[in-house]
Amino acid sequence: SKYVPPNQIASLSSQEDHKADDSFNYKSFFSTVGLSSKTPDQIKKVFGILDQDKSGFIEEEELQLFLKNFSSSARVLTSAETKAFLAAGDTDGDG
């Protein structure tokens, strides 16, 4: 299992190649941070960070701020990036 420390995630989320609109590739980001090798508890912790209002769902508005959760200098995801990201993670189709 590949461990990526939080400071490295912050570095990834604010890199120049993610600064341009519609340049964020969630697949390469998750591959780099090794998300597929995380335990269910680790995934729940990430979910808790993203679920800012603690509703049990990650709304589009929360997901737009995804990169900013790791680095305050990161940009907000575009609408297209957010929709693609949300669709990739919405395995049960509940939005």
Q: Compute the number of helices.
A: 5
Q: What structural class results from the helix and strand content?
A: mainly alpha
Q: Main beta sheet, described?
A: none
Poorly predicted regions are: none
Tally the beta strands.
Answer: 0
**What name goes with the CATH superfamily?**
EF-hand
In whole angstroms, how far apart are the ends?
Answer: 30 Å
Remind me, CATH topology? Recoverin, domain 1
CATH class categorisation: Mainly Alpha
Question: What percent of residues are in strands?
Answer: under 5%
Helix-residue proportion: 40-55%
List the helices and strands in order: HHHHH
Supply database-style keywords.
single chain; 95 residues; mainly alpha; Recoverin, domain 1; 5 helices
Summarize the structure.
It is built from five helices and no strands.
Written description of the protein model:
Belongs to the parvalbumin family. Ca(2+) binds at residues 51, 53, 55, 57, 62, 90, 92, 94. Keywords: Calcium, Metal-binding, Repeat. The chain is mainly α. The chain has one domain (6-15, 23-89): Recoverin, domain 1 (Orthogonal Bundle). Helix content is 45%, strand content 0%. It is built from 5 helices and no strands. The model has no long low-confidence stretch (mean pLDDT 77).
Fold blueprint:
Blueprint: H1 6-13, H2 26-33, H3 40-50, H4 60-64, H5 79-89
